[in-house]
Amino acid sequence: MRRITEADIANPEFIRDLKNYTAALAETQGLTCYNWLDWLTDEYRDLQEPIVDGSGRLVFLNMEVFELPETDTVPSISYWFRDFCTRVPPHVRPHVRVEVRDRVIVLATILMARDPTGTRHFGQCPDREFRRHSYSPISAQHASRSSSEAAP
Q1: Could you tell me the mean pLDDT of each successive run of 10 residues in the chain, 152 residues long?
Q2: At what angle do helices 36-46 and 77-84 cross, to 10 degrees?
């Protein structure tokens, strides 16, 4: 799986697709802003496919981009997941703030490596009707993995 780049997240349609996918994923997986980071970390740990850069070199994702010191002025990372993992209305043009680009790159890379079939259209499909019906965050591969893991 290729690591997501700054160019990918500069595309508003990519971000729209990513945010809508994370919202659907939260619904299907029962994720809340409080357990997103643990779930994402587990998914990264369990990836079968290596993450590579544009030259094909193996890269490791820096999960520390999600670590925030909790103080009175800096809220928990839970608030970031709460705000980011929401659907984007069609009339809104989403963007990524400079200070969170690395988080979005790591999040998108893990999700796309986890479910390449369900995320293959990110930023590419101009047909909003298709996009509206295509957010199925669990591919057949993951559904079969989950059911086989659940079996005794």
Answers
A1: 96 96 96 96 96 96 87 77 95 94 98 94 68 49 44 42
A2: 80
